[in-house]
Design a protein that fits this description.
231 residues; 9 helices; 68% helix; globular; mainly alpha
């Protein structure tokens, strides 16, 4: 198994836990931990010069994202890549849930929500999009924040639960192509159209813009997958 990046280790316990999580996440996203491979806790602890405890805590958090899986009597293993069929099913589910949430959130939009969405889009525009997770991680965070803000303001706890259930698999989807960010220009334009609908208090326009965004993301992901070094 390739070595982790092994950045500088913080002393504070919570900062240490976050550091280990980010190190493992970067190793997954950059392909240093390959799909389907076993994850050795002892080896990771040695490489990062930490005890097993923060490694186990980080793996438990990563299990919630769908990027790793825990198998009885075998420990943790990196999740396999999505198949094209699985990706299609995920995007179909998103196309049902997220436009509905978006329409509701826009119908109840507040100045505070508009400002937070605008900040997320501005952060997308300013984030680097290089080929490694260290370079595109902030872009990924701003993208996820934009969608989560809408979901959390949809005024329907059951739709939010459905969104949260998909959340981890959406992160696993990003693992699908191992290409970093290849569609920033398109994605930012699509987020901007969704934001414009919120600024115009246009729930139907927001719903349509979100549906178009998800549909186009699916198409771009399938195209990228054909050139991915993992497929």
């Amino acid at each position: 198994m390739p070595a982790l990046s092994g950045g500088r280790r913080p002393a504070n316990r919570q900062l240490l836990a976050d550091y280990v999580y980010q190190e493992l996440l970067a190793s997954l996203m950059d392909g240093r931990l390959e799909p389907g491979s076993g994850i050795g806790i002892d080896r990771m602890a040695a490489e990062l010069e930490v005890s097993q405890t923060p490694i186990r805590e980080a793996l438990a958090r990563l299990e919630a994202t769908g990027l790793v899986r825990r198998e009885a009597l075998k420990g943790y293993r990196v999740a396999p890549l999505f198949t094209a069929e699985e990706l299609g099913e995920l995007m179909e589910a998103r196309a049902i849930i997220e436009p509905a949430i978006t329409e509701r959130a826009c119908a109840h939009v507040t100045p505070e929500l508009r400002a937070e969405l605008e900040r997320a889009v501005d952060d997308l525009r300013g984030a680097p999009t290089g080929p490694t997770f260290a370079e595109y991680g902030s872009y990924w965070e701003a993208d996820e924040r934009f969608h989560r803000l809408i979901a959390e303001n949809g005024h329907n706890r059951f739709l939010l639960n459905a969104y949260n259930a998909l959340g981890g698999q959406v992160q696993r989807f990003r693992f699908f192509g191992n290409l970093g960010v290849t569609d920033a220009e398109h994605a930012i334009a699509e987020h901007t159209r969704i934001l414009a609908a919120f600024e115009a208090s246009d729930p139907e326009g927001a719903r349509v813009a979100m549906l178009e965004h998800i549909t186009r993301v699916h198409g771009r992901a399938l195209k990228d997958a054909t050139t991915s070094p993992r497929t």
